[in-house]
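User: Can you help me understand a structure? I only have the sequence.
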Amino acid sequence: MSFKLRRAQRLGGASLLLLGAAATPAFAQTPAQDKSSTEIPAVTVTAPSPIVRRAVVPTRNPGRGTRTARVRSRQQAAEAEPAASVPAAPQQGVLPVVTNQFATVTVVPNEEIRREGGGQLGDLLFSKPGITGSSFAPGASSRPIIRGLDVNRVGIVENGTNSNGASDLGEDHFVPIDPLATNQIEVVRGPAALRYGSTSIGGVVSATNNRIPDAVPSCAPSFQAYGLPTKAPLATAATSPCVTAETRTAFSSVDRGVESGVLLDTGGGNFAFHADAYGRTTSDYSIPSYPYLNDQSRPVNGRQPNSATRSDGASIGGSYFFQGGYIGASITQNDSLYHIPGIDGADHRTRIDGHQTKINVKGEYHPDAAAIDAVRFWAGATDYRHNEIGLADPADLNSDGIRQTFTNKEQEIRTEVQLMPFNARFAEVTTALGFQVGHQELSAPSPDNPGTLFNGLWDPNNSTRVAGYAFNEFKFTEATRAQIAGRIEHVELHGTTPDFPADYLPDGTPQAAIARNPSFTPKSGSIGLLQDLPGGMVGSITAQYVERAPKAAELFSRGGHDATATFDIGNPNLTIETAKSVELGVRKATGPFRFEATVYYTHFDNFIYRRLTGVSCDDDFASCGTPGAELNQAVYSQRNANFRGGEFQSQLDVGAFKGGIWGIENQLDFVRATFSDGTNVPRIPPMRMGGGLFWRDDNWLMRVNLLHAFAQNNVAVIAETPTAGYNLLKAEVSYKTKLDRNWFGAREMMAGIVGNNLLNENIRNSVSYTKDEVLMPGIGVRAFANFKF
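Assistant: Let's start by predicting it. Here is the structure, written out as C-alpha cells:
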C-alpha cells in the first residue's frame, strides 16, 4: 500500500485506517469471492492522538515555486487521488485492526455495537482481548477493566470529555454512557492515554456519537459533507434543509428486555442539528443454577434476585459551520434506575436511582496561518446525583428509603493546537500542544447517620487539576515513524478525615480529624517507534513513565462501602503512584489474514490499592472486630507491583463459499499481576482463549464463537476466593441491505439474532466483588432491527 494512498485517507479530523482483506491469487477463485475479499473497510479513530495527519497536494505560488497545501475537503482529496483509492464502506464482520497508532487500539464500530448490544460499556467490551467488565450488576453497572486495571486507572470519555459520573467511586455505580446512543467505541492503551490524564494510566475508553455534529447531514450523493473545515464558501454545502433519521430496537429473552432509540439529524447551509432519545427496561434475568455459593437457604426460582433495570436518556445539540471551522454544543440527560443483585442487595431491596445532566461544547478551527494547522477545544459541565435506596431493616417494609447519596459536579476544558509539519532535515516533525483544566466537587452523605463522623463514605471534598501536554511525531521515512510525548499536571485536593483511633488501624497510626489539602505534581512521558514490516505488517514498540496522583476516595474515605462490602479507610499520606511500561506489538490490517499481537510489562512503584486487613466492621469503627460484622476493613495502601501480559486476535478468510467468504478467527489474552513479594494483586481477570467460524457476503454475516476462560486461582491472601473457569458460546446471524424508499420510507435496514451463553454455563466474573453471589445471565436470544431513513 503506497504512502500516497495512506495520506489521502487521513481526512475528517481523524485517521481513516485501511482494514480488511485484500485477495491473493490463492484465494481469488471466483468473482464473488474477489469482491468480498478485496473490499477495504475504513475505520475513523479520533481518540488515540491529538495529531491528525491529512493529505497534501502540490500547488504553485507565483514567484516561490511549488509548495504543499493542506487538503481541506473530501472533494479536493478525491481530485488529488485516483478514484480507485477511495475506500469502500466498512464491511460488517471484518476485524478492525488499527496500524497507524503507536500502541494497541481496539475499535468497536457502529454495526458491531448494534449486533452485540449491552446496557453498559463493560458489558459490550466484556470479551474483547485484554478487556473485561466489572459486572457488579450485569446490564446496569459494569465498568471496563483494561489489563487488570480499573476505576482510578481507566478513563472513560464521550466526545472528548470525561463521562463524569460516579462509576470510578464505586463498582455499583452505572457509567452514564449508553451503547444504545453510541456510534463507535475506541479503547486506547499506551502513550495516547497521556492526552487524557494520569488517571488513565491503564487506558481510555472513548465513546463517540453525533450529539455535536461535525458535518451537515447529506441527503444527496453529490453533497459535499464537512470532512475538514474548508476555506471555500459553504454555499457548496446543502442550502436546503435535510433530515435523516435512525431507529434502533432490540428484544432479549434472558431478561425479557426491550430497548429502543431514535436519532434525528438535520441541517442546511451553515447549521446542523441532532436529537436522540432512548430507553430500555429489563426484569430479573435468568440464570443457569443457584447463584449463592455460601448460602443455600434462599429462594431464587431460576432468576438472579433483584437484578431488574430501567434506563432512558435524551440529547439535543447543534453546530455552526463557518469558514475554516465549526463550533457546537449539546445538552444530555441520562437517567437510570436499577437493582443491585447479591444477598445483601436482595435482602434490602437495594436499587440505585441515578440522574446526570451534561452540557458539552466543542469546536475546531483551521486558521490561514503558516505555523498553525488546527485549533481544537472541548468543554463540559456535569451535574450528577444518585440515591442508593433500600430497606434499613429487611424485616420492616416501612423502612424503605435513601441510605446513601452520591453527587458529582464537575467541569472540564481541554484545548489543543496542532502545528504545521516542518522539515527538520532528519525527519518531518509534527507537534501538538494541549492544555487541560478540571474541577470536581464530590459528596456522599447518608441520612442514616446525620450529624456523626460517619455521615456517609466521605465528607464533601473537591479537587482541581491543571495540565499541559505535548505530542511530537517524527516521520523519518515513509516506513519509519516515531513519537515523543510528555505531560505535566498539578493536582490540588481539599477534604477531611475523621478521628482514626490507633486501636482501629492495623499500622497503629492515629489520624486526626483535620482538614487535609494535599497537592501533587505528576509528570509523565513516553516514546514510541512505528515501523512498516514486510508482508503488510506494522511493528511498534513503546516505553512509558507515568505518574498518578491519589484521588479523593483513596485519601478521604472513612466508612462503609456497600458496593465492595468494605469498610474503607482513606490514607491522606499516600504519595504519587508511578508506572514504568514497555509494550511491543505487531499488527496487520489488510489481506486475507488480519491480526494484532501485543505483549507488555508494567512495574508500579507505590501501587495504590484497598488492602484488606482480615478485620470485619459494620457502620462505624466501634463495630470493627465484632463477631458477625458484614464489611471487610480495607485501608488504602501502597506497594510495588508488576503487571505482565499479552493479547492476540486474528481473522483468516479461508475461501469462497455460496457467493461469500468463510473463515476462522481466534483470540487470546492473559495478565499476571503480583506484588513485589510474589503475592497476588486482587481481582485480576483470568487467561482466556477462544475462536470460531464466520461466513459473510455483502449482506449477510453468520458466525459462531467459543470463548474459554480458565479458572482464576491466583487470588489475594485475604478475603478473595478462587473462581471457576467457564465456556461462553455465542452465535449470530445478521442481514444488512438497502431498501426501496417507497416501501415505508427507510433507505437501509440491518436486523439479526444473537444467541448468548448458548451452553447455559455458570459464569462468574473473577474481577467482581459479588462473584460468589451473582451469576452472569444464562442462555438467551437477542433480536434487533436498525432502520435508517
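Now, to help you interpret it: The longest strand covers residues 631-657. Confidence is low (pLDDT under 50) at residues 1-40, 55-90, 221-238. Let me know which part you'd like to focus on.
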